[in-house]
Design goal:
Elements: H1 2-19, H2 23-34, H3 40-50, H4 56-81, H5 108-121, H6 130-149, H7 155-190
């Protein structure tokens, strides 16, 4: 089964490289992927959301989701699966970015991007307005695609990162909502 998945993964990566590669995307994709290096864009957004009281719940849930991504994805799953990256051992692949040194599954860039987008989308109270949430989802999708274009992740790594990220974001939003209800219930009883 693993061989079939790897075969499909390489056929998709090779299709992208053979049919979509062009100088414009060669310039743009490294910039798009850099947005999520070390979670930079999403951490900055979470911090910005933490500052105003009105958006603080969004910042808190996004920060919680990002912390869960580090624990679940980077510390546990990457080391558990220890999957080599698609360019490993292939001298014909010339990378447009510095070669990542960690394992491939799941895509951390994709996971943190979709965890961030889903955490503020699924938050019942005080969630992102539609256009801002849509922009986050589009950005997450572009970051995920950039990992394929740059040949640093398999499609199954990106799909895994997307699924895990959405689950983490959804879970963080639900946990925050329950915690918020509990805190508000205690506050109302003490009044």
């Amino acid at each position: 089964m693993t061989d079939i998945i790897t075969e499909i993964d390489f056929s998709i990566l090779d299709f992208i490289r053979e049919n979509l590669a062009c100088p414009a995307l060669d310039s743009v994709m490294p910039l798009i992927t850099a947005l999520a290096n070390y979670g930079t864009l999403w951490i900055a957004l979470a911090i910005a959301l933490l500052i105003p009281k009105k958006t603080r719940p969004m910042g808190m849930v996004m920060a919680a989701a990002l912390i869960m991504c580090v624990i679940v994805g980077n510390l546990l799953l990457k080391n558990l699966f220890a999957r080599e990256r698609p360019f490993a051992g292939n001298e014909d692949i010339w990378l447009l970015i510095k070669a990542p040194l960690d394992y491939s599954f799941p895509s951390g860039h994709t996971m943190s991007s979709f965890a961030s987008a889903s955490s503020v989308t699924f938050l019942p109270k005080g969630r992102f307005p539609g256009k801002a949430a849509a922009a986050m989802w589009v950005t997450a999708a572009l970051i995920g695609f950039s990992r394929l274009y740059l040949y640093v992740h398999f499609p199954s790594d990106v799909l895994g990162g997307l699924i895990i990220g959405v689950l983490i974001g959804f879970g963080a939003a639900k946990l925050f909502s329950r915690f918020d209800k509990l805190i508000n219930g205690i506050a109302e009883k003490s009044e």
